[in-house]
Design goal:
single chain; 222 residues; alpha/beta; Nucleotidyltransferase, domain 5; 2 domains; five-stranded mixed sheet; 5 strands; 41% helix; elongated
């Protein structure tokens, strides 16, 4: 099963106040294991970044001025996430901003049915406890030292680890299959699906072991 860990950074909190996305990041998981497929873009929001948002992520108007606009990456983004569950921390925030961007360019909004909100999972699992990404990293002893500022790509990497811990799957099940070279070196027992080699002790080894045990017993009990 393939899933997408997703995060965004924005010019401010509220879509109603006209705030836009400045960074979007997606990391693909397959059976809870990170693949090499990553989608990441900084975006020109076509408006100024608020001071509070600048303090959070550090992306200045100057830095974002020459970046692509959301409409330039929308099709690639939608293709990347197509048919996959989205894993998001505080999904209402990110999806509100993504759906706002999609609406601006006349694209269909993302259905919340395909979203897993790790904030909701954490809230049900640890009521009354700290539920921020930093707090969950601390709880699960996940190194978040690179998170000096909030950046979507780093937050995705951290959230992928937090999610696995939240659902109690610290060690994903991997499908280990013998390679062709391995199979060529061993003959399979026709009655079994695995390979093994049985080594029998020689008569001399059996006698030596018997003598060793007799001496050991005499020493301990007589």
């Amino acid at each position: 099963m393939k899933q997408i860990v997703l995060d965004t950074e924005t010019t401010g909190l509220s879509v109603k106040e006209g705030h836009r996305i400045v960074e979007i990041a997606c990391i693909e998981l397959e059976n809870l294991v990170k693949t090499e497929n990553v989608f990441h873009n900084y975006l020109n929001p076509e408006r100024k970044v608020s001071e509070k948002a600048l303090d959070v992520h550090g992306y200045s108007d100057e830095f974002l001025s020459d970046k692509k606009k959301f409409k330039d990456i929308a099709d690639d983004f939608l293709k990347f996430i197509e048919g996959k569950e989205l894993i998001i921390h505080n999904a209402d925030f990110d999806i509100a901003h993504i759906n706002n961007e999609l609406s601006i360019i006349g694209k269909k909004k993302i259905d919340k049915e395909y979203i897993i909100d790790t904030l909701e999972i954490a809230r049900n699992k640890f009521p009354g406890a700290g539920l921020s990404l930093d707090a969950l990293c601390k709880r699960f002893r996940i190194d978040n030292s690179r998170r000096i500022k909030h950046t979507a790509i780093i937050d995705c990497e951290l959230l992928s680890k937090v999610y696995i811990n939240l659902i109690d799957q610290k060690e994903p099940t991997l499908d280990f299959k013998p390679s062709i070279s391995l199979e060529s070196n061993f003959k399979k027992d026709s009655k079994h699906d695995y390979c093994k080699r049985i080594i029998s002790a020689s008569p001399q080894e059996i006698n030596l072991h018997k003598n060793f045990l007799e001496k050991k017993l005499k020493k301990n009990y007589f």
